[in-house]
Design a protein that fits this description.
The complex is a heterotrimer of chains A (244), B (223) and C (34). With 244 residues, chain A is mainly alpha-helical. Chain A has six helices and no strands. Chain A has one domain: Four Helix Bundle (Hemerythrin (Met), subunit A). Helices cover 76% and strands 0% of the residues of chain A. The chains are: A mainly alpha (244), B mainly alpha (223), C mainly alpha (34).
Amino acid sequence: MKRSTTSSGLTISLGIAAAVALAATVTLGLTLPRTVEQAEYSRLIAIHPGIAWTAYTAAVVTALASLLWLLPRTRRPSWDLLAGASAELAALFTALMLVTGSIWGRPTWGVWWVWDARLTLSALMLALLLGYLAIRRVPAEPEVRAKRSAMTALLAVLVVPVNHFAVTWWRTLHQDRSLDLTPEDSLDGAFLGAMALGFLAMTLVYAWLCVHRFRVARLEEAREEAFLADAIEERRREAEAFST
Amino acid sequence: MWRDALLVAAKDLRIERRSRVALQQVVPFAVLVIVLFAFALDPDRGVLTRAAAGLFWVAVLFSALLAVQRSQAVESAEGVRDAVRLSGLDPAGIFLGKAIAVAAQLVVLEVVLGVGVVLLYDVEVAGIGTLAATMVAATAGLAAAGSLYAALAAGLRVRETLLPLLLLPVVAPVLIAATRASESALSGTSFEVSPGDWLGLLGVFAVVYVAFGLIAYGPLLED
Amino acid sequence: MGYVWAGYGITLASLAAYAVWLLRRARSLDRRAR
């Protein structure tokens, strides 16, 4: 089986580590004891917080990469490609965070969704990420697209603290629900261990996916440039054929 | 920069005066939205009256999308981009001018819409000062953010569908803050968060987006 | 318990699907480059 060029020693080690950590997390998580507050539903503690943490990390990577691209001194195409790759993963993990949170919330809170500060902010973050990904998909020259994407990313970052205050203040008016998913009586030993393992596993999965996604993006850029070079070459040959 | 801004704002407003797009299309659209809300919700005036502030600002948001797209479309006409570049106008001034023009149109729209909401939704206004301040602060933010994102999406072929997707999540805090501040003006009571805090948030939003627009508009025009 | 299975299942399935899609795209880009 021939290895693809996005594969390397790094990705293989990352991949194996991620797979092992993920398997351990799932095994540990599914065998956690039942709790008084949440019966067996607290087993989701092994994956949900880890997914949330990874989603935020991926978004931060996108923001930093965008900043590095915008600053003239550090501008390199790699930063733009990294920003795009990480944003795709951030969207994936944010969506997963919302889904697992919703699934966890249904039996514990009784509803699929509550308009509490954290969930609302997460939903807004997903919307911002989807907007960023949409602007990346619009066909344009790499420089133009990179510039607009980077600006979009930074604007999204700037609005996050504003969102935070707006939504948090908004929801302080309605303090009836206890909004924490993690039940009080589970924060010890095995549960904390499972959660920590989940953090590790999800981060490794993200890292592995991100490297591959970044390299795929680089291959696509190269392919675009090759097409362009070929087209220019074609034109040049045609022009020469005419003039001779 | 200010001189250029006023030049551009005057130009945009003059275009509006001649073409009357905002007056004949955007304002009726906003009024239509208000009417549709009345159809969609229980005509029992209790619901509409309670939701009036929120519905008002949602209608303003949608109208702002149209206003900002129209403002950008004016720039995308044949040869205009090159003419603007050659004119030597300060890009920051261009941004400011366009935002001011959009803001002016939005304020007019809000006044008209406000009267409509008071009449149609059976609303009593207790704090007109708060309402006015809210309108100013929110409009500034909407105009600045809208003009900026419209420029970001300009020249890209899927602009019409892209802009709402980009802009609406960004102005969500404006919707939240403006609605809460307006609510306290309508009912005369305020809750745990004072309208002053909400106005402050609107102000921060506006400052951030005006600042970013002033800095980023130049590089954006270069493409 | 069904909810727990659903949560774990959706998570693993989504991650796996994305990974598969990504690796296949890498492979197809490779093929065209050669």
